[in-house]
């Protein structure tokens, strides 16, 4: 007798959720990015008990039709790409069509959404991949998605969530990353009904001080360079603002937060003797690279990425940072190669 069976959608989604949804902060990231992709200008994030009981994002973006609202929870359902060639020209945060399906497989989700042109909005309630309610409702333009009781049906995962302060720290990190990438969008964060952060739309320098650390105010050195392969903009901290603790180092490639030890090394290398050993320079740097020359499809969370011209980007970045902090003037003797 044959033994192989196709898994049900609910189980397949739950397995996929294992990769995309590791903790409340992963949900925060996916929801905020969806709102950004929907063109929202005002975002509200409401969490309770560090996201363990509630993670809600309310946006004023495009909203969805009733059919799209239902479709958005299907796995591999996306409005962002259509054919495989689109994978090489990604300009949105999302494209895998997996997040909402994964989240709905491991939580109780309530979505309210309305497009500007529609008179009534749509309400959908879905629990463990099962739609339990769909209705027409009065709703503001945009989308509100409330994710309740994450991992309610996966006790093993719920048990492994960390303490509230730790989970909240991860949430704030994701919130800060998205907020830094989009200074022109306003963000508010509430935790247990208390306003934790309120970031009005602003220029990048103000967003940095609002979202990260007020003391960076007079410490930001502008970084700007444009070549054929990469355009770099943003700020690095002046050498004297380097901290003993790590954490305020941000790279965004086409507005997507990424981690790269290789590029980090380029920045640190540019600072060389300008900062004391064991201290970490601040940076928020935006790299614009033609989507054809990067591959963001390495990992579901999309924080790792592959560059075609890695070495060239390293060199451009290093010299851009050197220029902006004036290392050339500070230590001309060790810069023979410059
Ligand atoms: P992806 O973002 O990779 O497309 P998701 O599962 O995150 O996949 O979302 C599925 C689809 O639902 C999106 O492609 C988009 O069309 C729609 N969607 C999700 N969130 C929103 C939102 N906040 N506003 C408008 N549309 C949304
Ligand atoms: Mg998405």
UniProtKB/TrEMBL annotation:
Gene Ontology cellular component terms for the protein in this record: mismatch repair complex
Keyword flag Lyase: no
GO biological process, one term: mismatch repair
UniProt GO MF annotations: ATP binding; ATP hydrolysis activity; ATP-dependent DNA damage sensor activity; mismatched DNA binding
Domain DNA mismatch repair protein S5: 208-326
Keywords carried by this UniProt record: DNA damage, DNA repair
Role according to the record: This protein is involved in the repair of mismatches in DNA. It is required for dam-dependent methyl-directed DNA mismatch repair. May act as a 'molecular matchmaker', a protein that promotes the formation of a stable complex between two or more DNA-binding proteins in an ATP-dependent manner without itself being part of a final effector complex.
Family in the record: Belongs to the DNA mismatch repair MutL/HexB family.
Protein name: DNA mismatch repair protein MutL
Organism of origin: Leadbetterella byssophila (strain DSM 17132 / JCM 16389 / KACC 11308 / NBRC 106382 / 4M15)
């Amino acid at each position: 007798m044959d033994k192989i069976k196709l898994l049900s959608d609910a189980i397949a989604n739950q397995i996929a959720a294992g990769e995309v949804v590791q903790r409340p902060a992963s949900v925060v990231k996916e929801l905020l990015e969806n709102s950004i992709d929907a063109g929202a200008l005002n975002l509200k994030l409401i969490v309770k008990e560090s996201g363990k009981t509630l993670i809600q994002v309310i946006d004023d973006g495009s909203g969805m039709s009733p059919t799209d609202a239902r479709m958005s929870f299907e796995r591999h359902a996306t409005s962002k790409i259509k054919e495989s060639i689109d994978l090489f020209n990604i300009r949105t945060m999302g494209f895998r069509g997996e997040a909402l399906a994964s989240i709905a497989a491991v939580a109780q989700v309530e979505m309210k959404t309305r497009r500007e042109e529609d008179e009534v909005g749509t309400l959908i309630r879905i629990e463990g991949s099962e739609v339990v309610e769909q209705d027409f409702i009065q709703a503001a333009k945009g989308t509100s998605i409330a994710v309740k009781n994450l991992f309610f049906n996966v006790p093993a995962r719920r048990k492994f969530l960390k303490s509230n302060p730790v989970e909240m720290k991860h949430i704030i990190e994701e919130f800060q990353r998205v907020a830094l990438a989009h200074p022109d969008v306003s963000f508010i964060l509430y935790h247990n009904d208390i306003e934790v952060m309120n970031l009005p739309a602003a220029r990048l320098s103000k967003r940095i001080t609002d979202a990260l650390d007020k003391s960076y105010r007079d410490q930001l050195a502008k970084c700007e360079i444009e070549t054929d392969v990469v355009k770099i903009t943003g700020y690095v901290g002046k050498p004297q603002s380097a901290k003993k603790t790590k954490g305020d180092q941000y790279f965004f490639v086409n507005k997507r937060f990424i981690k790269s030890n290789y590029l980090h090394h380029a920045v640190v290398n540019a600072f060389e003797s300008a900062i004391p050993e064991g201290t970490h320079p601040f940076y928020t740097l935006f790299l614009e690279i033609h989507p054809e020359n990067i591959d963001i499809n390495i990992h579901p969370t999309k924080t790792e990425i592959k560059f075609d011209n890695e070495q060239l980007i390293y060199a451009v970045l290093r010299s851009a940072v050197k220029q902006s902090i004036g290392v050339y003037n500070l230590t001309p003797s060790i810069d023979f190669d410059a």
